[in-house]
């Protein structure tokens, strides 16, 4: 069955530290991969997406993600976290022949000054 | 261009009451979705509509009905609310082609007592 796993429920980092949020997927077809961010009380906003080509994808707010087919992973990274990055982050997977996404359970990021 | 809008933002219902959550998008998207978000569960698809006049069940459809009124609007109805339906509900629409991503509304926080 298709699934997305975000192994870290909650991550705490200091402001200025680097960040990596993990995402693993199980999908039979060639995946399309997404990272969304949800600030408290808000809807979801797309950070970045991967369809094909360069496996390192740049997104908004200084985030990037790397697709590793051999590891079935699409981890999100940021070199230096800002306090405003505190939010919940969701990984999602789809494919070219469907208009539905499967979401992971999310990772809540807390940033300490 | 308002994107995806939802009404109401907050609602409190008593068990057994009914209500309809409204969603509209102004991006001329064909596909629309209703999700619920619960702590630790991520986003779960309730119903979706691939085009005007069509609807399909998602992962958690029990206790809900939907109507795709026209291309813009997709409503979610709770006929007899239960405490288990306390959740945050998100509507989304799908932009195919170059914008291949789901766009989310701001959400409706529903409490059933």
3D structure, described in words:
- The complex is a heterodimer of chains A (113) and B (113).
- With 113 residues, chain A is an all-beta fold.
- Chain A has strands at 3-5, 10-14, 19-21, 24-26, 32-38, 44-50, 56-58, 64-68, 73-78, 87-94, 102-103, 107-112.
- In chain A, the strands form 3 sheets. In chain A, strands 2, 5, 6, 10, 11 and 12 form a 6-stranded mixed sheet that branches.
- Chain A is globular.
- In chain A, 35% of the residues are buried.
- In chain B, 0% of the residues lie in helices and 57% in strands.
- Chain B is mainly β and 113 residues long.
- In chain B, strands 2, 4, 5, 6, 9, 10 and 11 form a 7-stranded mixed sheet that branches. In chain B, strands 1-3-8-7 form a 4-stranded antiparallel sheet, with no helix packed on it.
- The relative contact order of chain B is 0.33.
- Chains A and B meet through strand 5 and strand 6 of A and strand 5, strand 9 and strand 10 of B.
Could you give a short description of this structure?
The complex is a heterodimer of chains A (113) and B (113). Chain A is mostly beta strands and 113 residues long.
Topology:
The complex is a heterodimer of chains A (113) and B (113).
Chain A: E1 3-5, E2 10-14, E3 19-21, E4 24-26, E5 32-38, E6 44-50, E7 56-58, E8 64-68, E9 73-78, E10 87-94, E11 102-103, E12 107-112
Chain B: E1 4-7, E2 10-13, E3 19-25, E4 31-38, E5 42-51, E6 54-57, E7 65-68, E8 74-78, E9 87-95, E10 101-104, E11 108-112
Parallel strand pairs in B: 2-11
Antiparallel strand pairs in B: 1-3, 3-8, 4-5, 4-9, 5-6, 7-8, 9-10, 9-11
